[in-house]
């Protein structure tokens, strides 16, 4: 089954009048749907439906009648729950499927391929036109398509002049002109298909002219060399010389040395070492390929830069560097950025406006994510109080209407009946929104939309996004106290004579402890975790565990492992997978209850194959494999990678109420602060509202040991000021790594 994106919108006479690049997008009535078409032929035995069926593809609308508005130079954060269509919207913009985006507008996109396999990334590179032997630095430098086109044409013409045949430059310049007419024909066909009426008539005339020009160019290209006369030879040769000179002038103006220096600085900022610059791109692992692709987007100077989860494969140093780079980019460029990320702190630091995708609509908020959440809570409180007050007023008026009507009918008092009728009219027409759009007093003849309307709009209180709830089971009881896990003097070496990855590490976890481990990629965090869970043995030192310990381990590659199981058994569902995992220790009802508590209810658990679950659903399924046995210790290694920020908030709330111990390895500063440090500041107060019972911590929760460690040079060092201390140290390093503001 193949999927394609269908995008439509309302068009005015101002749309598509020219093809000049734009740095602003303003499209009304945008509808985006994903259609699925099957390659297999229709079953001849299947009865045909009656009536006039046009055989429309099976399309699912993700966005309906929305207003897409992007202003030049603004950094936008796009938020919405998993599966609402964020990546599809970004893909439609990048592919210029949205009518109103000129073909020549430069758009660079980093796609969300966090779950991509090595083969997927290889195909992506090949489809992007990358050769098998492209180096890391060469891959990044080749991402500037306009510069590549200038170089290609310049080299093509230069080689034609290196031969002794005088007809080679003529053939070369004719080939270049033919390619240009072919592109003009494509644009003319596109415009003719999108326009109607008088503009459509003119577009079809332009299309005929473009077709004639294309055919004439093709005829010249296919002309036999012997039939080219001396006049045409002289003219085309001179055109080739002039074109080559123009291309050389453009090439010299591109400051290639500066571009290469900038590419090197970006790669270093994203974690590459200079020794890897000449390494073949296709030999990199999936995570490093994604970093290289991110660098290839950042090196460009597009009109629109689209970044879909750019922090997925970055450590905290890379995240802080990218924050500062994008902030600096705002001062030196008019590039519009549309960003999707589950990292709250990253979105807060980079984005100045928020686009909310909800209920198939797009709404906008000027401010960062924290300001949006605070404003949303204030709006809920404001409109909630107004609605409550009005409901009390309505109840009072209804009571007086009943009493007045009863009295009027009993005494035959027409004044009483008229009074009751007047109050009923007020109840019908004047109850509702009491303030205008500007915040002043509402006036019916001024503020009512539509002259035919006579009643005010009903007060609507903003509601929280309906999402999944996560409830973790209580940890199993221990029959006697003691440390859950204890590591003393751990030393680990991959080679007997090699440098130690871990050197004298001590870790002790008791019931209820909250411990976070942070550090840069490659410092040994995952190695330490594998030692603690017993997957590897230390070179020196001792690791002991409680005799009745049940340990739940969420590995960094849990999602990849689930996808591997799907390939072996495509029919595998969440319910059948958990049945195998528990080996009959839980019946179907208990398994459904467990999966339902993690947001995998009903048919999603039993009927939908695991291969069709979203990234967030796969995380929750992997978490079900971890918690079904009610472990006393949870070890979580990068659990937020595939989640939207709503689910990260819900997960943090559920984990905060867990009565067992938690060892967390994460680059997500919000999760470490809220879960490990236990902070409930104003910026993240929404966390307290998402889960009952966490607004006031119990004495047990307040007495928990909370510690944030940084693993560096094989040593585990506690941070007295938690995440903030580690972040400050990284900011100092980033300031030395950023490219100059001249770029």
TrEMBL record:
InterPro entries: AAA+_ATPase, ABC_tran_Xtn, ABC_transporter-like_ATP-bd, ABC_transporter-like_CS, ABCF, P-loop_NTPase. Residues 36-59 are annotated as: Disordered. GO terms for molecular function: ATP binding; ATP hydrolysis activity. The lineage of its organism: Eukaryota, Fungi, Dikarya, Ascomycota, Pezizomycotina. The keyword Nucleotide-binding applies. SUPFAM superfamilies: P-loop containing nucleoside triphosphate hydrolases. Pfam families: ABC_tran, ABC_tran_Xtn. This is P-loop containing nucleoside triphosphate hydrolase protein. It is a multi-pass membrane protein. Residues 45-384, 485-738 form the ABC transporter domain. The keyword Hydrolase applies. It is found in: Membrane.
């Amino acid at each position: 089954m193949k999927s394609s994106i269908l995008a439509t919108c309302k068009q005015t006479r101002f749309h598509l009048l020219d093809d000049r690049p734009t740095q602003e997008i303003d499209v009304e009535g945008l509808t985006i749907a994903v259609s699925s078409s099957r390659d297999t032929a229709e079953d001849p035995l299947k009865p045909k439906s009656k009536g006039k069926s046009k055989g429309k593809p099976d399309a699912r609308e993700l966005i309906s009648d929305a207003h897409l508005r992007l202003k030049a130079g603004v950094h936008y954060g796009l938020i919405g729950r998993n599966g609402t269509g964020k990546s599809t919207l970004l893909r439609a913009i990048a592919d210029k499927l949205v009518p109103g985006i000129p073909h020549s507008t430069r758009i660079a996109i980093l796609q969300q391929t966090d779950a991509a396999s090595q083969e997927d990334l290889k195909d992506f590179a090949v489809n992007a036109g990358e050769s098998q032997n492209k180096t890391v630095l060469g891959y990044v430098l080749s991402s500037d398509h306009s510069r590549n086109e200038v170089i290609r044409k310049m080299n093509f013409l230069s080689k034609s002049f290196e031969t002794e045949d005088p007809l080679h430059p003529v053939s070369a310049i004719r080939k270049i002109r033919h390619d240009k007419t072919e592109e003009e024909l494509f644009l003319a066909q596109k415009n003719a298909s999108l326009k109607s009426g008088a503009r459509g008539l003119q577009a079809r005339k332009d299309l005929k002219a473009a077709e004639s020009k294309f055919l004439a160019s093709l005829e010249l290209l296919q002309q036999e060399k012997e039939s080219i006369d001396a006049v045409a030879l002289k003219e085309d040769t001179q055109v080739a010389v002039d074109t080559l000179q123009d291309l050389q002038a453009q090439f010299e103006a591109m400051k290639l040395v500066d571009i290469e220096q900038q590419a090197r600085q970006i790669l270093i900022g994203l974690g590459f070492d200079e020794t890897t610059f000449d390494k073949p791109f296709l030999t990199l692992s999936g995570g490093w390929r994604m970093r290289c692709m991110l660098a290839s987007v950042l090196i460009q100077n597009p009109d629109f830069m689209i970044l879909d989860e750019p922090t997925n494969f970055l450590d905290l140093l890379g995240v802080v560097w990218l924050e500062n780079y994008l902030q600096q980019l705002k001062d030196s460029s008019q590039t519009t950025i549309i960003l999707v990320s589950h990292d709250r702190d990253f979105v807060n630091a980079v984005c100045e406006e928020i686009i909310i995708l909800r209920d198939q609509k797009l709404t906008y908020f000027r401010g960062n994510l924290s300001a949006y959440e605070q404003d949303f809570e204030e709006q809920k409180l404001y409109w909630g109080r107004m609605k409550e007050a009005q409901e009390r007023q309505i109840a009072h008026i209804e009571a007086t209407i009943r009493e007045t009507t009863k009295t009027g009918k009993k005494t035959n008092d027409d004044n009483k009946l008229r009074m009751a009728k007047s109050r009923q009219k007020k109840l019908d027409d004047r109850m509702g929104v009491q303030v205008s759009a500007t915040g002043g007093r509402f006036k019916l003849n001024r503020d009512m939309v539509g002259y035919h309307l006579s009643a005010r709009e009903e007060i609507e209180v903003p509601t929280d996004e309906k999402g999944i709830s996560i409830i973790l089971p209580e940890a199993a009881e221990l029959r006697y106290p003691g440390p859950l896990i204890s590591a003393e003097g751990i030393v680990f070496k991959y080679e007997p004579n090699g440098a130690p990855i871990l050197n004298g590490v001590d870790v002790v976890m008791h019931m209820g402890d909250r411990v976070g481990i942070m550090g840069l990629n490659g410092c040994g965090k995952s190695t330490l975790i594998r030692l603690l869970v017993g997957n590897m043995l230390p070179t020196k030192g001792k690791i002991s565990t409680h005799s009745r310990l049940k340990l739940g381990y969420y590995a960094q590659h849990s999602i990849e492992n689930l996808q591997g199981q799907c390939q072996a058994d495509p029919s595998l569902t969440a319910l059948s997978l958990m049945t195998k995992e528990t080996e009959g220790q839980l019946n179907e009802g208990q398994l459904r209850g467990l999966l339902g508590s993690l947001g995998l209810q009903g048919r999603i658990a039993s009927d939908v194959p695991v291969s069709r679950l979203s990234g967030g659903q796969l995380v929750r399924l992997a978490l079900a494999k971890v918690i079904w046995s009610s472990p006393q210790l949870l070890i979580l290694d990068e659990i937020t990678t595939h989640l939207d920020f709503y689910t990260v908030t819900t997960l943090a709330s559920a984990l905060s109420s867990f009565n067992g111990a938690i060892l967390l390895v994460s680059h997500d500063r919000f999760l470490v602060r809220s879960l490990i440090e236990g902070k409930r500041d104003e910026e993240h107060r929404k966390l307290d509202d998402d889960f009952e019972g966490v607004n006031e911590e119990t004495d047990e929760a307040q007495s928990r040991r909370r510690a944030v460690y940084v693993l560096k040079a094989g040593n585990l060092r506690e941070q007295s000021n938690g995440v903030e201390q580690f972040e400050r140290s990284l900011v100092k390093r980033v300031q030395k790594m950023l490219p100059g503001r001249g770029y």
